[in-house]
Design a protein that fits this description.
CATH class of the largest domain: Alpha Beta
Distance between the termini: 41 Å
Number of domains: 2
Mean pLDDT: 97
Pfam families: Amidohydro_3
Strand order of the largest sheet: 6-7-8-9-10-11-12-13
Organism: Flaviflagellibacter deserti
Helix content: 25-40%
Shape: globular
Largest sheet: 8 strands, parallel
Number of helices: 13
Number of strands: 18
CATH superfamily of the largest domain: Metal-dependent hydrolases
Protein name: Amidohydrolase family protein
Strand content: 15-25%
Low-confidence stretches: none
């Protein structure tokens, strides 16, 4: 039988050019130049980049698109954001959360973002957000993978019903165990929460993803405890430390000890460049700390590092567009990762590296993988980040689910070209 879809003349993230991608029954059947068969549908991409879909491994979908309800975060700090979220929670309804989350998923799909790990607050005895996002997960399953983290926003021990509610959320079908040790009342309580939450995950066979050390305090060192508990309980490869911004402020000697511990434990790291650069360093005058964790150093030690969007128009962040290329673009600037190799890594950090953390089955561009792809108006991953490239086609299981015309600008200048295509302005030599 002829393939259901063939994408012709694609450039792949690994640098291969002139590739045809044949799709049958929702899977990639073949990738090679000049496939002879005819597809039921064919898309000629003229050398444009075809990538696996974008993955956001750290997000808060229960709060998204709630900007201004009931008020704005005037200080821009993490703590005011948490306080504001506490004001919003009592007036949340499941219907409103579902509506906002579905609208955000529409936006995500248009951006080629087809997998999201969302933390959902369990410090609400009604579990409104949990109920709502479990419903959203079912409704978006045909076109988006949504993984949920039981997140005790107000502290596993600090909030009196958080432990009970977290267990309830897991029993309802939430996928991952979360935590926020730096928000407990004491450092000792924070370390104890890491231990208890990892034990819950180990007993249930679940993944762990903790907001860990999201602070400018260099003495917030719960990532050390998380790495230890990961090894003690045999959770290697199943645990993620998100944010890790205190590492930005730690002294270099301690970090030289810490990085090998994280790598040895197989703990993943997630930085959230847009949020970290905006929230951290708020108490500084000048010089101001950037706040993002030490991404190049983590990489150098073999730690799997990915990037998350974290927030879009909510109590913590009034901007955001669901664009993971915007996230990668910020990371390049914040961490000064401007070598070509490092910029390619930043593309991986919003695609393959994040997919590894989520444990997505069938992800990638190889025969046998799910036919989930994004065609970008760019010729390689670096250009895609530089341009925050237009998504020409978004494909899920071999079906086009979003399509955007190529962006060109018409000029009326004497003696100059009539059309300008930004994707044609790449470097003459990209090696």
């Amino acid at each position: 039988m002829n393939p259901d879809l063939i994408i012709r003349n694609a450039t792949l993230p690994d640098g291969r050019t002139g590739q045809d991608i044949a799709v049958s029954d929702g899977k990639i059947a073949e990738i090679r130049p000049a496939i002879e068969e005819k597809g039921a549908r064919e898309i000629e991409v003229l050398g444009q980049l075809v990538s696996p879909p974008f993955v956001d491994v750290h997000f808060h979908m229960d709060a998204t698109l709630s900007l201004g309800i009931p008020r704005l975060n005037r200080s821009g700090t993490l703590l005011e954001g948490i306080a504001l979220w506490g004001e919003l929670k009592p007036i949340l309804t499941a219907e409103a959360v579902v509506e906002r989350a579905l609208r955000y998923c529409d936006l995500a799909v248009s951006r080629g973002l087809l997998a999201i790990r969302s933390h959902v607050d369990v410090c609400d005895d009604r579990l409104t957000g949990v109920e709502a996002l479990l419903e959203v997960k079912k409704r978006v399953a045909p076109y988006l993978d949504l993984q949920l983290v039981a997140f005790p926003q107000d502290g596993f021990y600090r909030s009196p019903t958080a432990e009970k509610n977290l267990i309830r959320a897991l029993d309802m079908g939430v996928d991952v165990v979360g935590g926020i040790p730096h928000f407990e009342r004491t450092m000792a309580d924070g370390a104890a929460s890491v231990r208890a939450l990892c034990e819950i995950a180990e007993k249930r066979g679940l993944l762990v993803d903790m907001h860990c050390d999201e602070t400018d305090d260099p003495m917030s060192r719960h990532i050390e405890t998380l790495a230890y508990e990961t090894q003690r309980l045999g959770l290697q490869g199943r645990v993620t430390g998100s944010h890790l911004t205190s590492m930005h402020s730690m002294d270099n000697y301690y970090v030289s000890k810490l990085l090998p511990l994280i790598a040895e434990a197989g703990v993943h790291a997630v930085a959230n460049p847009l949020i970290n650069i905006q929230i951290q360093g708020r108490h500084d005058t000048y010089p101001k700390r950037r706040g993002m964790t030490r991404v190049p150093e983590l990489r150098a030690h073999g730690v799997n590092v990915a990037f998350g969007h974290d927030c879009v128009m909510d109590p913590w962040y009034s901007l955001g567009s669901g664009d993971m290329l915007d996230v990668a673009h910020m990371a390049i600037h914040v961490a000064q990762m401007t070598s070509r190799e490092a910029m390619k890594f930043c593309f991986d950090a919003v695609t393959a590296s994040s997919a590894k953390i989520m444990g997505l089955e069938g992800y990638g561009l190889e025969p046998g993988c799910n036919a989930d792809m994004v065609v970008l108006q760019a010729t390689d991953p670096i250009e895609a980040i530089r341009l925050k490239a237009n998504r020409l086609f978004v494909i899920r299981r071999g079906k086009v689910i979003a399509e955007t015309p190529a962006v060109e600008t018409r000029l009326t200048l004497d003696g100059r070209p009539g059309l300008v295509n930004g994707a044609a302005y790449g470097p003459m030599e990209a090696n």
